[in-house]
Design goal:
CATH class of the largest domain: Alpha Beta
Number of strands: 13
Subcellular location: Cytoplasm
CATH architecture of the largest domain: 3-Layer(aba) Sandwich
Largest sheet: 7 strands, mixed
Number of domains: 2
Low-confidence stretches: 1-21
Pfam families: ELFV_dehydrog, ELFV_dehydrog_N
Family: Belongs to the Glu/Leu/Phe/Val dehydrogenases family.
Strand content: 5-15%
Helix content: 40-55%
Order of helices and strands: EHEEEEHEHHEHHEHEHEHEHEHEHHHHH
Protein name: Valine dehydrogenase
Number of helices: 16
Catalytic activity: L-valine + NAD(+) + H2O = 3-methyl-2-oxobutanoate + NH4(+) + NADH + H(+)
Length: 378
Amino acid sequence: MTDVSGAHVDVPHTAVSHTAVPHSDVLHTLFRTEQGGHEQVVLCQDRPTGLKAVIALHSTALGPALGGTRFYPYASEEEAVADALNLARGMSYKNALAGLDHGGGKAVIIGDPEQIKTEELLLAYGRFVSSLGGRYVTACDVGTYVADMDVVARTCAWTTGRSPENGGAGDSSVLTAFGVFQGMRASAQHLWGDPSLRGRTVGIAGVGKVGHHLVEHLLKDGARVVITDVRAASVDAITARHPEVAVAADTEALIRTEGLDIYAPCALGGALNDASVAALTASIVCGAANNQLAHPGVEKDLADRRILYAPDYVVNAGGVIQVADELHGFDFERCRAKAARIFDTTLQIFARAKSDGIPPAAAADRIAEHRMAEARRG
């Protein structure tokens, strides 16, 4: 069934015999105007393994949709659908600005991965992805790892983020962090006229898969680093290696840190909201988290406070650059060179924002939308 927005609810009979029947709240989320425009949404269920998942394809204008699989204990199916739609749309824009021949897609598996993730569940999920015939290429995201993608790949040829032993590129967080670092350098160049972060103070909220690599880049460049994470073990792992790294009690304390030059949200989305923007002491926001803007209008609030925002989907594209390259025979140095161009892309966005008199987030959207529109026309 299709509404005017183009969203489509698809039951893939060839994958697994048991399929979810969407209830009215989920359908309402699928067809809300602001969530519209998606080409296809697949609701997946395999009762024997406990799998419940949503696969959202936002656009295939530039090529097969590419995006990771998030495994998370959503409070409701509606929340899971909304997250999948939002993340898929973000992937379309991210892939477009990264210069990839891929559209945007995302999958979410509903549940606590610590409790329900099994080999059988991942194999069932792989069959659902495979049923799409290559329209969606999956990879790692929050709650999924290289070892998981190795399992998914056993039932799905369209799987990236696999281990080198299984023909993949391994951990994509390495180049994600490198790309964010390039975005920070570009932000510093634009605001202060120098890309070096030496002597600057950078606050990182979330030092997990990406954040801990970012710490290494910043320290090597001579920056001072302050961190926080809801997981004490993640903080302890950083301070054990680098006792010079300062620790904030929580994110609220971090964003209020005096002398903070750059704030890097590197955990879940929605970090930039009315309260956090009002409290920010940093001059630049540049981090790895997806969907950092909690609602429309936050980008203007940042601009009004003269806080330079490096759009998240631009600077965190290093990982997707890596997994896309895996489809063509992975070469790390080739990927690193592509990820380094995030520096130039970020500067281009700041220049467009200045010339058009709009926030950087709006400028990035315009550039990405132009590339997708050109692909549809041609």
